[in-house]
Write a structure and sequence with these properties.
153 residues; mainly alpha
Length: 153
């Protein structure tokens, strides 16, 4: 029987870090569309690419979850894209395309997301059972990928 309020992950879309990063990426996309026209293919493009790289890396890592090291590698890439997005937001506020208040709000959300990605990555490194191990019941490592890191409905 499953724990109350938790479910087993069948998709990367069930992960809270994916859902939050996707939402932020969509906000960055919308935000970048109001930058000056000459920035659409410069800083606008950079902030869109780095923010969209976070959920994309989480999804790609999930697709490689049979291989723990590959999964962790893509979570590291997601964390790096999170940091890169914060740098681009620093440029955006420096160019006065967003207010300091907007900047502080986005930076705070990306810092929280980065901490969640880091905790999940540590969890995977410490106690990950890949899907094959779950099916066979054989493993040298204990734990379950899904618990504690899935968004609750």
């Amino acid at each position: 029987m499953e724990d109350k309020g938790r479910k087993r992950g069948k998709s990367y879309k069930d992960l809270e870090i994916y859902r939050e990063s996707f939402e932020l990426a969509m906000e960055m996309h919308e935000l970048s569309l109001v930058f000056p026209k000459f920035e659409m293919f410069e800083e606008g493009s950079q902030v869109r690419k780095s923010s969209k790289g976070i959920p994309a890396c989480i999804a790609e890592g999930w697709g490689r979850r049979y291989y723990k090291n590959e999964f962790v590698k893509f979570l590291i890439y997601a964390l790096a894209s999170c940091d890169e997005t914060k740098v681009h937001l620093d440029f955006v506020v420096g160019c006065k395309y967003i207010t300091k208040e907007q900047h502080e709000g986005y930076i705070k959300r990306y810092e929280i997301l980065g901490k969640k990605i880091n905790r999940y990555m540590q969890y995977v490194e410490r106690s990950y059972l890949n899907p094959r191990e779950k099916m066979t019941g054989h493993s040298t490592i204990g734990g379950d990928l899904s618990y504690d890191f899935l968004a609750e409905d």
